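REQUEST
  id: r-88c1
  op: predict_structure
  target: Adenine deaminase
  payload:
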Amino acid sequence: MPLPKAELHLHIEGTLEPELAFELAARNGVTLPYATTDELRKAYDFEDLQSFLNLYYELMAVLRTEQDFADLANAYLARAAAQGVRHAEIFFDPQAHLSRGVSMGTVVEGLWRALGSWGSPRASEAERGGERNHGISTRLILCFLRDESAESALETLEAAKPYLDRITGVGLDSAEVGHPPVKFREVYEAAAALGLRRVAHAGEEGPPAYITEALDVLGVERVDHGLRCMEDPALVERLVRERIPLTLCPLSNVRLRTVDTLADHPLPAMLDAGLMCTVNSDDPAYFGGYAGDNFTAVQQTLGLPEDRLRELARNSFLASFLEDDEERRAR
Ligand code: ADE
Ligand code: ZN
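RESPONSE
  id: r-88c1
  status: 200
  body:
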């Protein structure tokens, strides 16, 4: 039995496996610049975040209809459930779809078709716990692309307004360096005023100062990645004191060369420092593993003992946006 866990850092577009990419391409008449799934997999050799993002955005061309988004999310839920995931807070990147003429409604309704509202306070009894959503409770987090303009982020939030009953929070992702959190102050203020929860990627490739800015300017409750906090002892002390959760993604860090090898990953030092760490998969189709695979990898390569693994699993529920009673049920 895999350890029950929550996944808090997962880009649904990053769960697009090569087989599904080709299936959707055929269904939608999209020609991919790869002849076979093997050829596509060979392109998964990344130098940094940007080289990954180039392929990530390119492959999104196959996602066109509500059913495509539903199929994508269903495939993720099946894999995640098999690895012990009981709750998933799922990022999606609407700007990457709106720019291709795919509407916010297509994306949100499609994802919702698969995710349903299992465990959501808004769910009817009939909607809860259905086989079709694999017994995983979910939340949706709309991410703004930080390499797009602040105006575009505001327009995206506006486009999401008819769907806010299905969206729990906002996040910030894509190319980090040169796009500091402060650029998105206004849209985060607007999101907070709408009652949305706030998270942001910070300190993946960007400097520790971006983590501080995400906390102070954007008011984030969790930091996605946050790896580079280890370069700033005063920041580490603050994150520990304020119990700010970090959603780490070890296999992603290796594939995007944020760390040299998994053996060099600072997770053990971060736990020893008292940081509230969680382990997640980021873009599992591209980085070689889902949530359970990330747990297994850190157990085997970093030699994390059982109690540390249990701490990581417990943190994942504590750091989630589940209500207290839901959290107990999910565990
Ligand atoms: N979008 C998808 N995966 C990402 C990551 N690891 N960092 C920033 N943006 C992303
Ligand atoms: Zn991410």
